[in-house]
Amino acid sequence: GHDRVLSRALGRRGVSDVSVLGSASQRERCGPRGRAGVARAGAVAAAVALALVGGSDAVEAQRLYATPEAGWSDLRGLTVGARVGAEIVGGLDLTLQGLLFFPDESGVADPGVGVERSAWQTSANAIYVFDRTRGMAPYVGGGLRYGASSLTLVVDDLRASRRQEGFGTNLLGGVRLPHLPGHPFLEVRFGDDTWTLTFGVLPTLWGS
What we know:
Number of strands: 9
Number of helices: 3
Radius of gyration: 21 Å
Structural class: alpha+beta
């Protein structure tokens, strides 16, 4: 009922439907099959991490770092966030990351239709740095994330909203410059049908 009323209001303003708000399949992306896939990905990531550290007698962190970061995403807007990480052994890092997105709202609906968009994600990733001693050190990684996004259209006094949330997987790659102050980095991350480019520095909290 509510969406049909909003559809009629949008139609009066030249917007033919509310498909921009998303579909049921999008809202239910993380169903039983999706959760099973995430569980399998998590098991694989855990097995890889255990294999990397299994041959070492000391698996405590060698260096802890934390940093704010900023970037851009396929939502055509600014992304800000922060991460904390630990260099475990060899080239392995474990990181926790949170990102807040500020999506571009232009072009989503016709003029006169109010648009409100928001999105955020949290992630846990395992990263492998190929050679920490190089001036430019590339790395790859993957992990799990949980996120949510919402879109609201406002016409006159009517509002209709769609929200998506759930678990997903990450694939990422980047480059670090460990010989420069602050250990700058540039990273691109892919998840489902989205991408995010971020940059920042990795100042040491503990270790060397």
